[in-house]
Amino acid sequence: MAHALRKPEETQSYTERIRDLLAQDRVGAARALLAEALERKDHKEDLSILQQELDPDRTSDVEWLKAHANSYRGEWVALLGGELLAHSANLEEVLSTTRKKHTKHRPLLHFIDHPSEIPGLQEAQTYAEKIRALVEADRVGGARALLAKALEKDDHGEDLSYWQEVLAPAKVIRVGGELEPDRTPEFEWLRAHGREYRGQWVALVENRLLAHSSNLDEVLSTVKGMETSRRPLLHHLD
What we know:
By secondary structure, this protein is of the alpha+beta class. The protein has four domains: 10-54, no CATH class; 59-112, no CATH class; 127-166; 169-236, no CATH class. It has helices at residues 8-11, 14-23, 27-40, 48-54, 59-68, 91-101, 127-136, 140-153, 161-167, 184-193, 216-224, and strands at residues 75-80, 83-88, 108-112, 171-172, 201-205, 208-213, 233-236. Helix 2 (14-23) runs antiparallel to helix 3. It is elongated, with a radius of gyration of 26 Å.
């Protein structure tokens, strides 16, 4: 009686199949197959070496975080072997950079949050409240990173459109249906005077400074009471 031939992968050990996947640069599939093998536990293979190759020891990465975290508050970092591969408040930028490096092992991605001593941050319940606390503490980079994290998760049930508008770089306060004016004078002002107002929000019309403060609400309140020839440009100087 004839018997059906077994597929090639069924005659191979997990080690052989995982090695084949790694040779094809299919690291994700190799990790999935390793996880399957470790879950089944009926193969009698020693997969510890493959475990180490696919999931390296993170001790050096943890040590890096202990030593350098304060310098990267409000940012995503990508680490491998105690080396910083990329950092940004924007997660997509970090992912894009690490993909280009084609590392043998999977980098550790970690968001370095702000310490709880920021006024109001520990008590804040919603993303909007936390973002406001960060902005008021002059941690705009952290506020942008937290906003990006909230938008990525999309499971919080909050309307964060206000903060999307406010935290967008070089934001324009819109009034009516006026077309976007040429912002060259405002950008020239920023290049010439930006250093004098670091850590503050500024509102500009052409080469004129309308208001400035580390408190966003103060600037918004001042600008909304003014009659201007064009929409003011609202910008935070990091």
